[in-house]
């Protein structure tokens, strides 16, 4: 069984077949799905999905690219959602400097990243962290908010094996998805070789990041077998072992 720790089935890419696809995936080897909110609107649609399907859980949070929509009312609204029985994490939150060069905007991202980390602490929930082109500031904010006191996953991990150690030292997991199957993903393959399997989670980021041989197509949790196979190959073990251990990891993290 595969534990899908990061998908966006509320995305419009699934409007045509969502209600056929999700039950099919849950019948065909995907045991649990964490659907991840990325804004106020998608946190709402994420929770609605979790209410509909017993094996779909929700993460509530606002992605760094959307934090301009946050204010104190939005924050309180998120806090209310965090108390929902199917909400098992705060996310995705973090920093994304890839598109944002402007100082003030980056500062706003750091502010709401820190606030949502504090929210997770207050609600005793793990966090799902998105971090792109912002490794140094991500670690800095995490240290400032004593991220060691909570736990979580660095989703769609894209930094070096050395930096992964810093996140592991704080007690965090590393989310591995389709990118690891790409031919040019040398750095990520090296990271997977070096970090313990006990700290890896399987994730798609569906509809994005489809693994080979589906690169560029719409992704879904069924394609995680290709990710598990690649991790198994890199570690010299079986993909069953990858599925079993990452399942246990996700259960431990999300307390399911
Ligand atoms: Ni995502």
What spatial form do the alpha-carbon principal axes imply? globular
Strand order of the largest sheet: 1-2-3-4-5-6-7-8
User: How far apart are the termini?
Assistant: 15 Å
Q: Provide the β-strand percentage band.
A: 15-25%
**Mean pLDDT, all residues:** 97
What is the overall number of helices?
Answer: 9
Sheet/helix structural class:
alpha/beta
What is the helix content? 40-55%
Bound molecules: nickel (II) ion
Number of strands: 8
Most strands sheet:
8 strands, parallel
User: Element order, helices and strands?
Assistant: EHEHEHEHEHEHEHEHH
Low-pLDDT runs of 5+ residues are none
The whole-angstrom Rg is: 17 Å
Describe this structure as you would to a colleague:
The protein is α/β, with parallel strands linked by helices and 256 residues long. It is 43% helix and 18% strand. It is built from nine helices and eight strands. It has helices spanning 18-27, 40-52, 72-82, 103-123, 135-144, 161-169, 186-194, 224-235, 239-254, and strands spanning 2-7, 30-36, 56-60, 87-96, 127-132, 152-155, 173-176, 200-202. It has an eight-stranded parallel beta sheet, with helices on both faces. Strand 2 (30-36), helix 2 (40-52) and strand 3 (56-60) form a beta-alpha-beta unit. The model has no long low-confidence stretch (mean pLDDT 97). The structure holds nickel (II) ion. Nickel (II) ion (NI) binds next to loops.
